[in-house]
Write a structure and sequence with these properties.
Structural class of chain A: mainly alpha
CATH superfamily of the largest domain in chain B: P-loop containing nucleotide triphosphate hydrolases
Oligomer: heterodimer
Number of helices of chain A: 14
Number of strands of chain B: 24
Structural class of chain B: alpha/beta
Largest interface: A-B, 28 and 47 residues
Distance between the termini of chain A: 31 Å
Largest sheet of chain B: 6 strands, mixed
Shape of chain B: globular
Strand content of chain B: 25-35%
Number of helices of chain B: 17
Distance between the termini of chain B: 53 Å
Order of helices and strands of chain A: HHHHHHHHHHHHHH
Helix content of chain B: 25-40%
Strand order of the largest sheet of chain B: 6-9-10-3-11-12
Helix content of chain A: over 70%
Number of strands of chain A: 0
Shape of chain A: globular
CATH architecture of the largest domain in chain B: 3-Layer(aba) Sandwich
Chain lengths: 367, 507
């Protein structure tokens, strides 16, 4: 029938429960299954999860480390999320991070600038490097219809192998025994917040600002309106006079910009150089963060912190109970499986399907 | 003798709505029983229960006096019920014979006995006056013939009761006349027919009995002798409706749309519009009549900038906008009510308020620089919802929650909200209820009286006749005739829509 009942005006807390319910239950379910696996391997669930918990947030230093771990995921999650909102699936965050880190590392180490300004220029260089690396697949999509899933995967290979070469040959620190670029100038470092001891650096604050900026751009600017309309109904966007190809390129550039900042913040805030085979899978986990955040920019913060906490707590969990760190990968994978296939969670917990205004992750081929 | 079909207290509920509410009716042998109702009145639900696709929540279906439970379409067919859907269920790449025997093959060992099947089909076709080429491939056939194939298919399976769901929606007026002859012939041979329609004129011409559904309830049971169009319309809507729009003669001004030698290809690269030239002046409505699929869609897409024409020029109020995209068309002062409101006209996951600024979001007062201002957007939505009578609880309601009529009102409101020089309205009332049609027609005429030129494209000849000041008939990508709107002869236009010009030759 063609007359669905009108949705009642949504009021505060109900909406929030609706948004949070599935991700929270997905995490809970994944942890329960993780516990079953722990028991099956003959270990003690309490000591394993106790270790995980203490390692993640058991002390101020543990919390700081968790936030450090979370920082690249915040940027990366935003990168993927911005693409989602325009109906684009940017799998190329990994490569964009690689290009961003490379640019930041080179500007940080090989350019001479006044302290402070040097950090800003290096950071911007990293961000722009990522943006450019994202914009190219965007341009290919907009002009030729080449699907961004394919092109960004290919661009990952190009970026990762090229940066590997650049690190090992032209920009290698010959004074060091390990394969990495030279340390960046002290004036190019973005500062630690509470000293080098707990490693929490300004990149985390920049990430928070990026979250707020992304939320604002998407919701309150004409660019955000164009991105959202292109994602929700590209035909209607075209009909309404929007420049859909330009929006696609811009979205991919903005997405790459966030990824580039992830790389820059790691290099300038934490590592202070760029190691060969730096690739840590941040780009791929970022897809998980965006899913967990349900494409809400503010949701990226808790999702990334949760992710960082799992990674950070895994060490103590292993120490306490002898459970392999790999269990965390299983738990993470289960969380994502349950978030992606949220009907499973709804079935288990008998939750009525909410408004099925789901997110379009990506559109069909060759449009 | 009991009626061939009787329905008692048939009720079907869906979450939040009672689709049919204790409906009673009977169908006698050799009777044509028409069901009238707006979209969402419950016609389809009722028929789907008869055809076994839905299980009723309450009530009984009796065939020849025996209560039955119909379990799915196959069961319905076995019990002598046949249905011709609005969208045909034919396999386009198979022949007519193959389509008819599909799922019902006569086998001779391992082989299908085509010859004997064809013999049966021919004799059926002859009995009922249904002329069909048994060896032709279905996709080569005109729509009217495909429909005859559907009818023969139902008869081949032994249908005594035929349900025809909006059978004339896809036909030219002449094809519809042919269909009516067939239906009367079926009736004369003792078949019983349920005829679903929202076209009042047809129902009055054809039916023995008319049942009117409104919001799931049977609100009227009458005969053509006792009813007229106005009475049926007010039964359907529940209030008096104006069927004929009052409008003054047009006072055309200067040219606002000048199309010269336009050539447009369709999605597959075939020429869909060939060498079309036309002019529209301020303050007049030019209607393009034609059966769907004769190039109207491509004409509109090219004029509004959605696609690039192959050749020719499009000038709007002095500005050449040929092939320069939708934004340029909008800037030149064009409004566009698109053919498919859900594909192009709306973002269903957006609020009404956001949909109202879909093409003006980037200009004052809705944006300052790059920043969107929510207050003026909300204020405009509130005004427009009121002015265009959009039935909704809130301007923040999502477009997807609105009925078709209210969705279309949102589109019309948005397009008419900005000052226009030219309005392109493509199928502006397709699938809408009588009340919304009346409102949208009035809005279009009011826009004309404001001095806007209107290009109206519609497959509904009645809509063209009601609104257009000049009528052009489009056939196979060309404008083959132009007639004045006042006093236009529906029969003559109907022939033109089939490509038959006054000399008797096919264009």
């Amino acid at each position: 029938m063609s007359i669905p009942p009108p949705t009642p005006p949504t009021n505060g807390w109900r909406t929030w429960i609706g948004i949070l319910l599935v991700p929270v239950l997905a995490i809970f379910t994944a942890l329960v299954i993780g516990a079953i696996i722990i028991v099956a391997t003959g270990a003690d669930v309490i000591s394993a999860y106790g270790g995980l918990f203490m390692g993640a947030i058991g002390s101020p230093r543990a919390i700081a480390y968790t936030l450090v771990e979370a920082t690249p995921y915040i940027f990366g999650g935003l990168a993927v999320l911005i693409g989602f909102r325009a109906g684009l699936f940017n799998i190329g965050v990994e490569g964009q991070i690689a290009v961003g880190s490379m640019c930041a590392a080179v500007v940080g180490a090989f350019v001479t600038l006044p302290p402070g300004l040097h950090a800003i220029v290096a950071f911007v260089a990293g961000a722009l490097g990522g943006a450019l690396w994202g914009a190219i697949p965007g341009w290919l999509r907009a002009r030729t219809g080449a699907h961004e899933v394919i092109t960004t995967i290919m661009f990952n290979y190009i970026a990762i192998r090229s940066t590997d070469y650049l690190i090992k040959v032209p920009f290698l620190d010959k004074a060091s025994s390990s394969q990495r670029t030279p340390f960046i100038a002290e004036g190019a470092q973005i500062p630690f917040l509470f000293g080098a001891d707990n490693r929490l650096h300004t990149g985390f604050l920049i990430a928070i600002v990026a979250v707020i900026a992304t939320a604002w751009i998407l919701k309150r600017t004409i660019i955000g309106f164009e991105i959202r309309t292109t994602g929700a109904n590209p035909d209607a966007a075209h009909y309404a006079g929007m420049n859909v190809p330009r929006t696609i390129i811009l979205t991919m550039a903005l997405s790459g910009l966030m990824a580039g900042m992830a790389g820059a913040s790691q290099v300038l805030g934490l590592e202070h150089n760029l190691k060969a085979s730096f690739s840590a899978g941040y780009g791929f986990d970022s897809i998980a963060i965006a899913l967990l955040a349900a494409s809400n920019p503010l949701g990226v913060i808790p999702a990334a912190i949760f992710w960082g906490a799992l990674r950070n707590g895994a060490g103590l969990m292993q120490l306490n109970s002898g459970i392999s760190i790999n269990l965390i990968n299983i738990v993470q994978a289960l969380v994502i499986a349950f978030v992606a296939a949220d009907q499973i969670v709804r079935q288990i917990y008998r939750i009525r399907s909410a408004r099925s205004a789901g997110i379009t992750l990506s559109r069909g081929w060759g449009r | 003798m009991p009626p061939v079909l009787e329905v008692r207290n048939l009720t079907k509920r869906f979450p939040g709505i009672t689709a049919t509410d204790a409906v009673n009716f009977t169908l006698e042998a050799g009777e044509i029983h028409a069901f009238l109702g707006e979209n969402g009145a419950g016609k389809s639900t009722l028929m789907n229960m008869l055809y076994g696709l839905y299980r009723p929540d309450e009530g009984q279906i009796l065939l020849n006096g025996h209560a039955v439970q119909i379990n799915g379409a196959n069961d319905a067919i076995k019990r002598g019920l046949g249905m011709v859907h609005q969208h045909f269920m034919l396999v386009p790449t198979l022949t007519v014979t193959e389509n008819i025997i599909l799922g019902n093959e006569v086998v001779n060992g391992l082989l299908i006995d085509i010859a004997s099947a064809q013999q049966r089909i021919r004799s059926l076709a002859q009995t009922f006056g249904l002329d069909i080429p048994v060896d032709a491939i279905v996709h080569d056939l005109p729509v009217g013939v495909q429909q005859r194939v559907e009818i023969v298919k139902a008869l081949y399976r032994g249908a005594d009761i035929l349900i025809l769901d909006e059978p004339t929606a896809v036909l030219t007026p002449q094809e519809a006349d042919d269909l009516f002859v067939v239906i009367k012939r079926l009736k004369a041979q003792g078949k019983s027919i349920i005829f679903i329609s929202h076209k009042l004129r047809e129902v009055l011409a054809l039916a023995d009995r008319i049942s009117v559904l409104r919001r799931g309830k049977l609100v009227g049971d009458t005969t053509p002798a006792q009813a007229d169009e106005a009475k049926l319309a007010s039964m359907m809507v529940g209030r008096d409706v104006v069927l004929h729009i009052e409008k003054h003669p047009a006072t055309p001004g200067e040219v606002v749309l000048d199309i010269n030698h336009l050539q447009v290809a369709d999605e597959r690269g075939n020429i869909a519009v060939s060498d079309v030239s036309l002019q529209i002046h301020r303050g007049e409505i030019v209607g393009i009549a034609g059966v769907q699929g004769n190039g109207q869609t491509e004409l509109v897409a090219a004029v509004t900038g959605l696609i690039q024409p192959l050749d020719g020029t499009i000038v709007v109020a002095g500005a050449d906008i040929t092939g320069q995209g939708t934004n340029r068309a909008i800037d030149a002062g064009m409004g566009h009510i698109p053919e498919d409101r859900q594909q192009h006209g709306l973002v269903l996951s957006y609020s009404i308020a956001d949909n109202m600024v879909l093409s003006t979001y980037d200009i004052a007062p809705f944006a300052t620089g790059l920043v969107i201002n929510e207050a003026p957007i909300a204020a405009q939505a509130t005004t427009l919802v009121q002015r265009f009578d959009v039935r909704t609880g809130s301007i923040e309601a999502l477009a997807s929650t609105l009925s078709g009529g209210n969705q279309q009102k949102v589109v019309v409101a948005r397009e008419l909200a900005r000052p226009l020089k030219l309005l392109v309205a493509a199928q502006p009332t397709r699938g809408l209820d009588v009340g919304s049609i009346e409102f949208i027609h009035k809005s279009i005429v009011a826009e004309r009286d404001n001095g806007t030129g209107v290009l109206l494209v519609s497959a509904e000849l009645d809509e063209i006749l009601a609104l257009a000041d000049r009528i052009m008939v489009m056939y196979r990508g060309q404008i083959i005739a132009e007639v004045p709107g006042a006093g236009a002869d529906r029969n003559q236009i109907g022939l033109l829509m089939a490509g038959i010009t006054s000399t008797g030759a096919t264009a």
